[in-house]
Amino acid sequence: MTGRKAMISDLAVFGGPVTFDPPRSIGSLANPDPEKVLRYSRIFYDRRWYTNNGPVNRMLEARLAEWHGAAQCVTFASAFWGISLAIRRLALPGRREVVTPSLTYRRMGEIIASAGMIPRYCDVDPDTLAQSAETTRACVNDDTALILGAHPTIDCCDAEGLERVSVETGVPLLLDSVESAFETSKGRRVGTFGRAEAFSIHATKLVNGFEGGYIVTDDEELAEALKLMRGFGIPGEDQIVSFGINAKLNEIHAATALASLDDLPALVERNESRYRAYEALLDGLEGLSLRRFNESEQTSFKNILVRVGEELPVTRDEILAVLQAEGALARPYYSPALHAHKTWFETRFDALPVAERISREYMLMPCGDQMSLDDIATVVDLLHFIRERGGEIRSRLLERSGLEIHTGYDPVRVQRFGSPEDVP
Amino acid sequence: VKRAAGDFACAGGAPEFTSDVPVGQLYFPAWERYESDIRGIIDRRYYTNHGPLVRELESRLEAFVGVRNAVTVTNGTLGLYLLALGLELEGKILIPSFTFIATAQAFLLAGVEPVFCEVDPATHHMTPETAEAALEEGVSAVCAVNLWGGSADVPGLERWARSRQLPLLFDSAHAFGVERVEGRVGRFGRAEVFSFHATKVMSATEGGCICTDDDDLAERLRNTRSNYGIRRPMPVPLTVNARMSEAQGAIALASLDDLETRRSNNRLIHDAYRSLLNVVPGVRLVEPGNVVRSNHQSVTIEIAEGEYGLSRDRLWSILRGEGVQVRRYFKPGVHRSFPFATMRPQQVEALPVTDALCERVMQLPIGATLTAADAERIAGLVSDAHLHAEALRSRA
C-alpha cells in the first residue's frame, strides 16, 4: 500500500501508484475455515455422493431452514435459477407481469424473463431505498402474476406491508432476500415472509458457498415442487412429472456453505468493527454520508453504503473512477436502475423518479474480510483527498477523457479502471 | 454363483452384493489432491466468477478437444440452454426422443419446442434418415445426441444438416474423450455440449462445457453465461448465471489429469462384461459405434425377452435384489414424458423404435465403484438368471 496522496498526479487514475493490490471489492468474501470445509467434505467423499441431493446438501437445507425459522429449505445451483423456478411455480396462471423494484440486483429483469414473464418495475421509497407497500400496490394490475419484493442492501424493505398488498390483491409474494439473510424486520426473522424467500450463497454474500442459492418457505407443497424442478422433474426412477431443469447444488458448495455458517457470528462481529470504523472516520465529512443500519433490528453490518451529496465538486461517478483506479473497487448502488437497462426482453414501467435519483447518489464501499481497519482508514483518506481537490480532479478527468464517466458494471470499464479480475 | 432359482435374492437367497453397486462413473480425485485444491482456493480467496482454475481448465479443454473455444458452465443442461440463446434459436428444434430428458428441457427453457425423431435400432443414434423423416415446418436447428461412449454418424448428419440449411448441434453429454477417425468428439457441428456430472467420466461434481470453433458464437455464449469471463461485450438476449466455480474447476482439472487411467479402468470392466455377456442368448451389448476410441463410460445392454427368457423389467428387478443398481435409461421416452406428451400429442404413438428400446435397454454398473471381477459377478448374474429363467418367471 502506498502512502497518502500529496498531489493530484499521485492518483492512480492520473498515472500515480495504485493504492490497493490486490484490489478490494464490495463482496464480503468471508473466507471459510479450510479445516471445516474438509471435515464436511468427508461426509460426501466417503459415500462417493457428489451431487443430486447428497448428504451434505440435506444437512445444509435443514440448517438453513432452522436458521431462518422456516419449515422448508430448497437449495439451488444459484439464486438466479432458484428465483427463476420459484417465479414459474408461484405466478398466477394466465398472467404475465412480475412486479419488482427498479432499484435491485442488476440481473433481476433477466431472472424474470428467464421464467417467461415480463418485469414491471416499481419505484422505491426515498427513506428505505426499497419498494414500499404503496409503490408496489400502484403497479399491481389485472396482468400481475407475482410480487417479487427485494430487500435493499442496508436494512429491510417493509415486508409486512408487502404481505398486506399480497393479501389485498390476491397476488402471491416472493421475496428476494439475498441482501438480508441475517436480518430481522420489525423483530421478525427474514425468511418467514410471503410465500417464500430467496437467498444466495455466492462467494460475495454473507454465507460463502462458492456459487449457490436457496429458498425457504413454510409451504411443503411448494418446497416439493421446487425440489422436482431443480432436478429435471424426476420424483423417483423412470418418472418425469413436472417441468424441470438442472439447478442442483453440488456437495462441495454445500460443505463450504456449512463451514461458512459455523463461523458466521465471528464474521458479523468483524463486519461490525469495520462498519464502526467507516462510521467514525466518515463522521462529519460533509457531502459523504454513511447510510446507517437500524440497530434495533438484527443485522450483519455487511454492506457499506455512502451517499454522495450534490454539494461536492465531483460527481459520484468521478469519485468511483478515482477509487477504482486505486484498487478500491467501490461500486455505484444499483446504477443504472433496472428500467434504464437496454434489454432484448420486454419490460414495463411508469415514471420512477425516486429510483432514478437514488441510482445516481449512492456508492457501495469495499467491505468484508479483505478490508483491514487500516485499509478502511486509507479509503477514507482517499475520500478526503478527492473531496478537497474535487474541482481539480474533475477538470483533469474531463480534460483527459472529454467524456462523461460511467462506472456501472460495464466490463470494458472494469478493464479500463481496474484489474479485469477485480471482483472474485 | 446362483445354482438354482432359489439362490436369487428375489427368491429368498442371499444378495450377491452386500452394498449397492451404482451405475455411474463416480470417479473423484484422491483425497490429498482434493485437500490441496481446497486449501489453494481458500488461500487465493478466488471462489468463482471465472477464476484462475476455470481459466486454466478452459485452455486445457481447448487443447485436449482440439477446438478453438471451450466455454465452461454450471452443468450440461444449462450448456444446451446457453447454446439455444447464443444461436437465437426460435420455433422448433429436431432432437431424438431416445435421450435424457434434459436435452428437451434445456431447449424448452429457451422457448424452443423439441420435435422428436427416431433412432437407429442398432446404434441408438439418430441418423440422416430418421432426421429427414421427422422434419417439419418451423424446425430451425437440429441437435443430435452422442450416446453410450459412441458417436452418431457425424459426416452423414453434417451433410444432411447442410442440405437442409439447419445448424447442427451435438449433445455430447456421454462423449467426453471419445475419438472418431476425424478427431476428438467436441469439434463437430456448430457446437457440442459436454456434461461433467459426477456420473460422467469427466467430473466436476456438476458441470459442463460448450465447445465450438465459431469465435463469435463462443463470445455470445460467454456474454450469456455471466458478466465474468467476457472477452468482448456483445449484445445477447439474456445474461444469466451459468458459471462454473473454482471448486468445480479444480475437480474437472483433476479429472482431466486422470482421464486416461479412468478410461483404461473402464475398458477393463467393459471387456470383462463383453466376454461373458455376448454368449448369453437374448443379451446384446451395445458397442460404442463410429469411434476409434470410446470413453467406455456406459455398459448398455438390450434384452430380447423371447430369447433371454425374462423381460428387461424382470431382470432389472432381479438384479436390484442382488444389490446391482441397474438403470433403465431411457424410460419413459422423452416423447411420452411431461410436458412433451401433451405438447406434441401427434408424436406419442409415432416412435415405435424408440418405444421398443425404452422397453429393452438397461445400463450395468461401470466406473470407480467396481472392478473387472465385480463386472464378472454381475455378468454371471445376468447369465444365471437366463439359465433359471423359467423358474424365476414363475416367481414374478
Any chance you could write out the topology, listing elements then pairs?
The complex is a heterodimer of chains A (424) and B (396).
Chain A: H1 34-47, H2 55-68, E1 72-76, H3 79-90, E2 97-101, H4 108-114, E3 118-122, H5 133-137, E4 144-150, H6 159-169, E5 173-176, E6 184-185, E7 188-189, E8 196-200, E9 213-217, H7 220-230, H8 251-262, H9 264-282, E10 288-290, E11 304-308, H10 316-325, E12 331-332, E13 348-349, H11 353-361, E14 362-365, H12 373-388, H13 390-401, H14 411-417
Parallel strand pairs in A: 2-3, 2-4, 3-13, 4-5, 5-8
Antiparallel strand pairs in A: 1-9, 6-7, 8-9, 10-11, 11-14, 12-14
Chain B: E1 21-22, H1 31-44, H2 52-65, E2 69-73, H3 76-86, E3 92-96, H4 101-109, E4 113-117, H5 128-134, E5 139-145, H6 154-163, E6 168-171, E7 179-180, E8 183-184, E9 191-195, E10 208-212, H7 215-225, H8 246-257, H9 259-277, E11 283-285, E12 299-303, H10 305-308, H11 312-321, E13 324-325, H12 340-343, H13 352-360, E14 361-364, H14 372-387, H15 389-394
Parallel strand pairs in B: 1-13, 3-4, 3-5, 5-6, 6-9
Antiparallel strand pairs in B: 2-10, 7-8, 9-10, 11-12, 12-14
Helix pairs in contact in B: 1-8, 2-8, 3-4, 3-7, 9-14
Defining traits:
heterodimer; A: 424 residues; alpha/beta; eight-stranded mixed beta sheet; four-stranded antiparallel beta sheet; 14 helices; 14 strands; 13% strand; disordered C terminus; B: 396 residues; seven-stranded mixed beta sheet; three-stranded antiparallel beta sheet; 15 helices; 39% helix; globular
Oligomer: heterodimer
Shape of chain A: globular
Structure annotation, total helices of chain B: 15
Put simply, the count of helices of chain A is 14
Helix content of chain A: 25-40%
Major beta-sheet overview of chain B = 7 strands, mixed
Share in β-strands of chain B: 5-15%
Structural category of chain A: alpha/beta
**Mean of the pLDDT scores of chain B?**
97
What's the shape of chain B? globular
List the secondary-structure elements of chain A in sequence, H or E. HHEHEHEHEHEEEEEHHHEEHEEHEHHH
Helical amount of chain B: 25-40%
Distance between the termini of chain B: 20 Å
Rg of chain B, rounded, reads 22 Å
